[in-house]
## 1
Amino acid sequence: MQEGWIAVNNIALMAFGALAIIGALLTIVERDPFRKLISLGILVGGSVPFIVDRGLLDVAIAVALIAPLSTIFILMVCGRGDQ
Amino acid sequence: MTPQEAALAVCAVIAVYAAIRVALEPDTLRKLPFLNVLSFAVAGSIALLIPHPLSIVAAAAYFVGSTLESNAIASTYAGGLDRRE
Amino acid sequence: MNPEFILGLVLLLGGTIAAAFPVPKTYLNRLINLEISAWGLLLLMLSYNEALALLTFGGVSALSVYIFVRVIQKKEAPA
Amino acid sequence: MDSILPAFARILVAAAVCWLNFILIDLFFRLPAGGGVVGATAIGTHIERGGGAIHGGYMMGNIVSSPDASAGTLLASCGVYIAGIPGGLLATFLVFIGNRICHDRGYAGTTGAITATFIVWGFSQIGFSPAEFIAGMVIAILTIQGISHRHSSRLLAYLWKVREG
């Protein structure tokens, strides 16, 4: 049972790694700043479970609160989108 | 297969599905509900990966942060910065 | 060679190349692509289990994004 | 203790329970009436432009841009899974703080978290695991936000019309 648990954890972490790769590729490919920021959200969602899986929960809390802060800073430069 | 493993597998599969739907959606603001599904799945799997009291706070912090990000993106896209600036 | 190390290297290299040659050549796109390599560096630090380095890097990264944003605003303002 | 149902069937039952919980509470607190913030209104308008109904779009925009009863159900299931009833109440408090951060009154999220805490705890007494409720809530939000915006917004608008009478 212990091995099964580790195996499912590994498969789930592979899925989150795929999530991070998808987010990074999408961020590079997109051209509109808003779409790039949404793709950056996918990248963040793929990276945070790796921090949690190491057991560094305090770091995960800090990073999960700081990541939207920098997104809001970047949004200060973006004008409004086309309606 | 224990309940935790089944739940973690479901969360991981739904997260990847939501990311693919975000990639394929042409309208910018209609990407945000799919991003919300992704953050639900990630917040659930944060709590499922490590059953520790602090991981409730981690899941809530991730979820609130992601919601705040979606809110700021939608407000800025819809028309100017809101009063948070 | 754990998965965080490989993923971090890929993100760091990809983000750096994308920040060097952004597709629409604006400062905003360079800044957003720089965020990718910041997350790659964070995962790379994670693979060495340095909790204090991670906390410091997270805070300083948000601060540097704020400084870059102010610089871009000053640069793009109609003089 | 082994139940008769296999794991995935129990996850589907939990998904139905979570779906009923958060839809009923969101309808009770009048989320489909209008957008709470500017971003929610914009998301509703875009969903209507894509062929959906406007009130369902407002409710989906409100779910995206502020932690409402669905987020309360998810975080309360996480809390009960980790620490029992006190964990669920801690999650309720965190949802309330999150609502305050997002410029919302926060009644829907807090009420949803409290009811979900006791529902999940009650089901864990009869053989369900709280982990199945986490997966069930993810499936429930997938059916609203992630399959087809056109049909789910029409369903929500129909329910809103029924609730208005």
Note: Helices of chain B lie at 3-24, 31-49, 54-79.
## 2
Amino acid sequence: MDLSQYYLIWEYMQPELLLLVATILLFFVDLFASPRFLDKWFSGIACVLLAAVTALSCIPGSETHTLFAGMFVNTPMTTAMKMVLNIGTILVLLQAHEWVNSEACRVRRGEFYELIFFTLFGMYLMISSGHFLIFFIGLETASLPIAALVAYNKQGDKSHESGAKYLFNAVFSSAIFLMGISFIYGISGSLYFDDIATAAATDTALFVVALAFIITGIGFKLSLVPFHLWTADVYQGGPTAVTAYLSVISKGAAAFAFIWVLFKTFSPAPEVWQGILYVLIILTITLGNLFAVRQKDLKRFLAFSSISQAGYIMLGVMAYSAQGLTALVYYILVYIFSNLAAFGVIATIEHKTGKVGMDDYNGLYKTNPKLSLAMMLAMFSLAGIPPFAGFFSKFFIFASAVHSGYYILVFIALLNTIISLYYYLLVVKAMFINENENPIETIKTGCYGRTGLVVCVAGILLLGLASCVYGYLSGLSLTVGI
Amino acid sequence: MEIPMIYYIVLSLVMFFAGVYGFITRKNMLMMLISIELMLNAVDINFAVFNRFLFPGQMEGMIFSIFAIAIAAAETAIAIAIIINIYRHIRNIDADNLDDMKY
Amino acid sequence: MNFLSLFVLIPILMMAGLAIARDMKQIRTVAVTFSTLQLGLAIYTVIKYLAERAAGNTQEMLFQASTMWYEPLNIHYAVGVDGISIIMLLLTAIIVFAGVFASWKIEPLSKEFFLWLTLLSIGVYGFFISIDLFTMFMFYEVALIPMYLLIGVWGSGKKNYSAMKLTLMLMGGSALLMLGIIGIYYHSAPEGGTLTMNILEIARNNAIPHEWQYYLFPLTFVGFGILGAMFPFHTWSPDGHASAPTAVSMLHAGVLMKLGGYGCFRVAIYLMPFAAQELSWIFLILTGISVVYGAFSACVQTDLKYINAYSSVSHCGLVLFAILMLNNTAMTGAVMQMLSHGLMTALFFALIGMIYGRTHTRDIREMGGLMQIMPFLSVCYVIAGLASLGLPGLSGFVAEMTIFVGSFQHTDTFHRVFTIVACCSIVITAVYILRVVGKLLYGAVQNEHHRELTDATWWERLSAVTLIVCVAAIGCLPGWISDLISNSLNAIVERLS
Amino acid sequence: MEYTLFILVLPLAMFLLLGLLDSKLKPRVAGILGTLGMTVCTALAYFTAFQFFTQPRNAEGVIPSQVPYNFEWLRFTEYLHIDLGIYLDPISVMMLVVITTISLMVHIYSLGYMHGEKGFQRYYAFLSLFSMSMLGLVVATNIFQMYIFWELVGVSSYLLIGFYYTKPAAIAASKKAFIVTRFADLGFLIGILILSFFTKTFDFATLTANPSAIITESAGATFLGCSVASWALALIFMGGAGKSAMFPLHIWLPDAMEGPTPVSALIHAATMVVAGVYLVARLFPVYCVTPEVLELITTVGAITALYAAIVACVQTDIKRVLAFSTISQIAFMIVALGVASDTDLHTGLGYMASMFHLFTHAMFKALLFLGAGAIIHAVHSNEMSEMGGLRKYMPITHITFLIACLAIAGIPPFSGFFSKDEILTAVIEKSTFWGIWMTAVAGLTAFYMFRLYFRIFWWKDTDCSHHTPHEAPATMTMPLIFLALVTCVAGFIPFGELVSVNGQPYHIHLNWSVATTSIIVAVCAIALAAWLYLKENNKPTAMANTTRTLHTAAYRRFYIDEIYLFVTHKIIFGLICRPIAWFDRHIIDGTMDMFAHVTQWISARIKGLQSGSIQGYVWILIMGTLLIATLTICCCL
């Protein structure tokens, strides 16, 4: 028995293991610390732990590490993806602080953080998997706790409905996903991504069916049309912090994982999945927009907006190039900041007043100028207005798709940005232009929430202008070798 | 006499789509859960059969199906928990009653 | 650091200054100080440019500077100016300067108003100094979006509808533009060369395949053309201008619409000369329609701002029309028309705003005899009107004549016939201008309540006089501007032959 | 002759000074300043004329033209550029004299006439602006400079007609004047564009030096059966016709009488309205190469002359009568130019006659208007019915007015006789038909002028119970006397020596047969007028009643205005502008709105997809998956 093997595993799986350690530590803190200490410090500890995980594992080596005979692959790019998710999760935790520590949720506080950490772990596995077994375990680890989280508000009148909708959809789509994997296995005799790529006969109907099933499984998590229908209901009914988590982290992780599956497993037949995605992207963007146009509930509204954003994200997958990969990761990073800024504002206001309707936001600027500005920046960034980060991410992702020749697709996507601009502006209009007899009173944001918002706003403002982020990601994607 | 592989495959497909059908038509959420199990088990059969017939030299499919069964159990546990929660709220477990949020 | 970047930096500092300003007085002080500074910078740029040219610098763009920004895509923050850009920069500075005074008493949320206005001006300045397609496009959109809030919050009438329509239509244009720019980027270098966003390099490479130009030219031209109010994409303009507050109308009609014209030839024509020649006839018809159509529409409007908005459609149509003639003289005229129209339409909107601020109506049927009540404003209005209908000695005349003479030099009969059609607009312009002047300023006082109204205050006078002086100066001494522009155009025109 | 620049700069400076200071100056100071400026200007012009005409002639006996100034103002292409300069040749110098003289007279006259008016300073500013523009027009070195000043005089005219800006009629008149002339200017502009496109120059000297360039350059290019060269020149003439109020573009001039009367004298009688004549004269060598355009010019002129004369016979507003008389007289000049078909001294007699008549007409018509101004000043009305018997009260006005009437009627020895005689001679030599025609018009002229004269000064012995008309102040009578003197002697100026078609001296000798005929006709007409109008009677009414239709038609100016109104309001506004505005709001705008509505509509229609039921969602999910699989199999395999 060679202890250095353990060390190797530690080194190669650093993010995952660190996260596990953090989870266990958190668990013990929750178990043994006094309630008064926890009231004060628990969120802080969770954030610090996650930040520590990020800090300790954020220096990815330059080479690729494989473990367990190639079932687990850690490359600089995957580490970067995990760090992106970590940043988002920290922001979500910051924003969740006030809600989680409120009277109703305080007793179950520990569950929230640990489940979040577990799902994050599952996502790590998804991203780093080189084998469908790991992928499947990661996928389920990432999605099952979320069902519990969505149903977290036990007393809430909508939370249980959301939980059920999420869970049944998730289980159903994972069954389909498994079916797809079994077909793949039947065709190629292996579940290793690399082996499948070499062994599978791509021109059989079974292969196509398997591909479609697998796309369904992951498309569910990404909420691509027509697998998106749960999204709005779950977002609306779930606790805002969980919704935020779902809309950015879970979606981001799925997109990252999707990339590896498609780029590795299905690399022999890119034109097949590109063809499928072509249609899905158009449907996703368009339907997401069309539904978003008439939403009155802001969380539901953001659900549909996130659906259409998923369509834009997929453009990076379509590109099937290093540039596309860079643009996609960058897009998700920017999307995390923008969407979380929006959710941060919504969470704050919902927590203090219980209002989430767009009409409730009328005249918000008069009473809460800073929150309104943050929300406006978020909306502009989501809509892709310069000089905010969203513009750059959109530009790069379009550029990558055009580079691969998808002019028409990008054109349709661009036309859709006009519709999306319309509904994003509706929010801005409500806050700045519309009059209101009794607007939401002036809200004092707690220090966690404020920190979260400030970081988000800073991200929105600076991510685009600071080109080093994109440059760094671009350097990483070139090492992937697509 | 060896039963050819195709019979197993047909069986698993029938099970799978029976599960799909049951999931879509049954109103009771427990029944829906059972349908899901049917679908998952169909997948397990697939894995086992492919492994046994096509790639007899390895155990990948078998192992996978074991994992799948385990995870299915976890799924069921969470599902039951949520169903209980629903029952507490609305005093029944009909899927039709869960449509407060729509459009 | 290159001093051109100051054009963007000063407004940013201005925004910072505004952010910490506490009361109206401080806000005004900051706004006036920085916009004066900016005007000074613009004048300095012109002088420096002329000196540099006189010293024999024959580079296409002067004061070039380039900093790598996004290395993977070879995107630079690249700046540089030629005669056309500095004219536009000067125009912007003048109008912002006048606009600050025109919005002296803006209510409510005055600080926010100036902040947005400044953001808008950042976009405009940035657009004109950029020679990198990406930054150019970025600044272009930066300039567009503040319009929504400026109209929505401080506007009047059906402002929500107008603001939304304007923003969506212009963003629709920029959507086309984005595709066009990305397309240009990927064809910017010959096979195997380094792709670039730098306009000068793309032009030098001249690598965009002809069949691609057929797609990319309409995309970029229409994209910019929407902002240039090209028929049939002009419909944001009347509503938008009518609802916008004074300074915003001034800036929008005066400067923002020029972004369209400027972009049309800096990007569409300069980079894709082949398609420009092949496809110009289609757009020539559209812009020709714009010219006449806008003028005819203006004849029967009753809202002052609508009249002016349609007149802008007509005049800006003339800009695009002349650009499409693809010869030096007509394009010189186009740039002069941009300058001239910018100034006089800003003047118009400023005056309309001032009148509206007093009478609270813009319907010419409800006003009359203002000459007796507010002689200063009325006289300014007459001067603006005369400039608009092309009185010699004011800027409109030189611009239009350069366009007509230039366009008529085209060797193709089709183009010449169309020039004659466009010429007809000068008569129609006279009709609607005199109609307004007659109804609004002359005659008996329509509403007895108006008799108590006062004439212009000092800041309003300053705003109007600044613009009038510029209009007259250009009208009397057009030679140097014309030379400045036409020398800079040589590079573009050479590519066309 | 560098000082000529000051002839332009001085009025411009006055305009800026008076215009900018406006009410900060005392009215009196403003008036005197303006007048002084104009006096200096006039002196300079006279001095210029003296120097110019006394300089030695060259070998061909031509007074060499001079260009003291010419600088490039705006460059279009390498060969097309607008220069601003001063071009002195016999006709421009002659015009300088005419303009400065009349302008000075009007400046002085207005001191009295406009005394106490609101906006007195503004009035003088505009007068200066006009003088500057008109002077700039006549000394233009190139056709584009002429166009520039052409527009400027148009605007000054607009501003001065609309001087009483609270009067609706004045506003309408100023608008009409501007738009009609603007329309004509469009023709001018297009003409310039075509001309310059082929000849590659704007310069008058170059154009006239090689007049056939336009023909050779544009050879073969035709439009609607006429050569492009003809079109260009006809369009340029259209510009001239607009300014000179030729039929059918004359409608603005009678209305323009809404302006202050001295303005009518200056702009709408003596100077601006002859700009069209001047334009054709300027380009005369070029016109000579296109005889068909000259024929057009003759025809237009002749029709206008007759038309205006007939209408003038029945008008009751004295300024209107004078306005139509102006139209008619300018038409004489136009006809004269039209019949001059060549640059030869003899066949080109019309050219000289036209210029001569321009000169004499300016003087006596200004006199008539200023006289009319004095009368209106006295009786506070324009209507003939309010007048009569004024000779007793206003002796100076009476005498000077009579002199002017005799001059315009063509009675020797007054100036009009000489110039009109030359015109009739020229016309008859070209065509007997037009000769008879124009002689008849001359007769009509004498008739309506004396109708006017008798109605004002005789007709009845006024019982001015409410207030007694009195003679105008000295500031007003002095110009009258001066102009009357000029009218008396101008005929004896050896005009042909100085101005002729090719610059060589031409000795005017009266064609006695023509002269006699015209004198007889004029005297008969005057006698008829005296018979009808000397004493108050009902003969005129009776005559009007017997020819009611004709009378009404003539009184309503043969309904030309109504036709214009119909075209502009019903057709341009009703059938073009309004439909376009509607189209814009509803079709174009509607299309854009439709995109929004369609989006909303679809959005509302598809909301059922989001049914809220788990099983519905799953159904769509599985169906979507299967559909994707099927479609992909169909497409890819």
Note: Chain C touches chain D through 56 residues (CB under 8 Å).
